[in-house]
Amino acid sequence: MQTVVFWVLAVAAVGFGVAVFVVDSMARATFALLASFLCVGGELLLLDLNYLGVLVVLMMIMEMLVMAVFMIMYMMNPGGLMPMTMVHNRRAALTISIAVFAAMAAGVLLTPWPHRRGAVPHDPAFSLGEAIMGPKMLVMMVIGIAILATMIGSVVLATDRGRYDRPPGRDGGAA
Amino acid sequence: MSDGAPVGAAVALPLVLAGLAYSAAVMDAAFRTGDGPAAPLRESVLLLLRQRRRTLASDVPLVRIGVISLPVAALLAAAVIPLDGGPGGSRVWNLPVSVVWFNAMEVVAWASLWLAGWGANSAFPLVGGYRFLAQGLAYELPHMFALITASLGAGSLDFGAIAAAQDEVWFAVWMPVAFAVYLLSALAMAFWGPMEHPVADDLGGGAAAELSGPDRLLFFAGRLALVAVAAAAAVPLFLGGGAGPWLPGWAWTLIKTVAVLALLVWLRGRWPVIRMDRFMTAAWAVLIPAALLQALVVGVVVLD
After folding, report:
1. Which of A62, A64, A156 sits opposite B285 (nearest CB)?
2. Is 0.90 exceeded by the ipTM?
């Protein structure tokens, strides 16, 4: 059962990934990519990496929606409503992607993977965090808060309606 | 789907959710127009029978995905909410990080509205879809902080454990700011009541303007289901889950859920639709700091 689900999700992830380059609209490409990521999130859930899996689902939905706004904003045709091809510079792009794929596939096959020692930890996400951050946890937490504060601050500063744009007579508006 | 998933609950869940969504529609009709309980049914049948209207060069698959994903997301969110309190509470999917999953499914609504708005190839729905993205982004942070505060109080990201941690005092009592922020941001995540700017009348219906027939029915039923799920999640998060005298856990859960739902529906008739671009400042400058301060207070109490 698990194997079947794994393969269905794996094939779907690759299939949606291919669809990104086949479809002729930026909106469809965005959501094909999102579907591919959701399949990857499903794979993580299948591995009992609950937190990582759910986090991938949550973050990817938000991220791809924000991406959609920016991609359509910066597109060549107005509003992105005309059909357009999703590939450019076909030959070089193909060469590069095939080379990268070959290198990564070779890495998968050539790496001497270690065998599992001990049992699966009770909370894999917690153990992963400890393994990656270890004694730097406090620093990472502080940096996390600083990044969050920076993001909120930059959004507040970047909103177009400043205090001089409010209609006159309103609290804080220009007279 | 981990072990112990009761098959009965999996069958009952869509029915319960549909019942809650219907009761929300009935209350909405009663509060706003004084119509009887048959009014939502009549409207549903009308929509079912009506032929679909198509716009020129619309992206039909994207619209369909957007419309269908709304009720599906509500159902998937409901799957992790325990019916009775306690860590072993019966629910369809026994996920240890259920609060994060619930939030992820709420965020699916962003995609739903954007897809429905974009796919119609029409100006007003497009504006509505973008409005909801901005609204979702602005309210996701306070929403997340409210969820995190409740999780912090219980030391767990699991609805069951959070409900079980409220044996002595409900979280709504000792973290009232988080509760208020949760309710307000849940309204925004379900584009309901004062936060329904993305589908508001000033845009001729916004993201849903071009939806007709069964599409329209699914879309608005999905929104009601989202509101119902938000109300249901408030029960284990802030209102002690299924705890209460005399009655069994599931009955208390249902009573509290309907109470919160009634409040949310009443607010819709009570408050005007807020212009999101004006109110955004309040979200960023008031709600987020308030939610952070509440999280700080709870964190200090928990550490003690």
Report:
1. A156
2. no
